[in-house]
Amino acid sequence: MKQTTSTILMIEPTGFGYNPEAASTNSFQKESRDFTPSQIQDIAVLEFRNAVAELRNLGVEVITLRDPENAGTPDSVFPNNWFSTHAEGQLVTYPMASPSRRKERRPKVIEQIKNACGCGEHVMLESFEEQETPVFLEGTGSMVLDRVNKIAYAAVSPRTNVEVLQQFCDRLGYQAHTFKAYGAAGELIYHTNVMMCIGDTYAIVALDTVAVQDRQKLRDSLSESGKEIIEISKEQTYQHFAGNMLQVENQLGERILVMSKAAYESLTPLQLERVQAHNEYLLYPPIHVIEQAGGGSIRCMIAELFKKV
Q1: What PANTHER family does this protein map onto (predicted)?
Q2: What domains are defined for the chain?
């Protein structure tokens, strides 16, 4: 069992932009006063293609798909929220809070993912959307997975429901570790992966966003599972997406920590020294427009493809 993969999926957007439907629970989204919707889409495509090129230049296998024209899916550049794959052979699809995001679960894409990974089991959790009171779990946005130790870390929020989380854990053999984490305005942080990243030998986490009563338990769990804890601050999390990182590897097995340029530039020399000790490369493409309009960063743009072993 490995924490990282060298194969990823990224979705090129055709209608990217600020999504009011999602903004009610995502305080990281900002409406642009500098660009028109058309300009935002054009810049997002440039940012996307540059990020793909930089990943490929370092030897990561990047499978890209393009969203259909006029699909009505402004957040499709963030595919890690609606599906995940697992080396035991499962493909999991998730219940999404925003109705427009449910359109991203297209059968053709699901079949392509199954074929790429050799998935033999499809765990479908989206039925939780259809309950009288719908509840949600938005993939590896809602959960940060320690795949080796089988722990699913989850900051509870309107998009991260404990009942669905437990269903995921029961089906895939994970242990749930829940806590509360708060945003700049005191709201529950909508996705765990904006304040936390788990690599093979380390964890980057904004512990000062975590409720005081949950903080030590989280620290202990990470330490006991063999992770060096690298702390980032609230300000780095809220303003620069510093928690939204992902460790991948290339075809040579070299470790790469991927973050945005904004996140990289927010790190202190000591933080950089500590993350560099765990990785052969740091990669930090600029994705400013995607971050601001979409409310997510580079980790959200990368869906890991774990091939069945």
Answers
A1: AMIDINOTRANSFERASE
A2: 7-304 (3.75.10.10)
